[in-house]
Every structure is written in C-alpha cells, then in structure tokens.
Specification:
By secondary structure, this protein is mainly α. Helix content is 72%, strand content 0%.
Length: 82
C-alpha cells in the first residue's frame, strides 16, 4: 500500500533556513524590544520562496505568527491605555 501523499525531499539547507526563520523571529523580539520580530522571517520567506517550499513555508508561517502577535499586542496596548 502506498501512502496517500509523498513528502518532498528536504535537504539540510532547507532545514537550516526553516529553523533560521523561527530563530530570527526570537532574536528580533529580544534585540529590538519586540518591534522587529517580523523582519527575519520576511527575509527568509522572500529569499527562499522560489527555491524551497519547506523553507518558504516555515518563513511564511513564522512571519504570519509574528504579525498576528504584533497586532494583538498593539490592540492590547490601546485597550490598556484606555
């Protein structure tokens, strides 16, 4: 029996850039006081979107996660100020 889908081959460079997308988001939180956490994943996604679906997926996933949290914190800050 064959599996319903086949996973693409992922090489070490793809895994490295997938991991970097998440680590750069964490570094952005720490070193920019939480304002540039989206920049690292954006660079990874723009760089790898045509070369590696694995790295592009993780870059976009990290980017959207960081943008969602950035928006939530902005809204919470506005509500907290009011």
């Amino acid at each position: 029996a064959y599996p319903m889908y086949q996973t693409p081959m992922v090489n070490n460079d793809d895994r490295l850039f997938g991991m970097l997308a998440h680590l750069l988001a964490a570094a952005g939180i720490i070193f920019s006081v939480g304002t540039l956490q989206w920049a690292g994943p954006l660079v990874i996604w723009l760089w790898k979107r045509n070369e590696s679906t694995f790295a592009a997926f993780h870059g976009l996933q990290s980017l959207l996660f960081q943008l969602a949290w950035f928006g939530i914190l902005i809204v919470a800050g506005v509500i907290g100020t009011i």
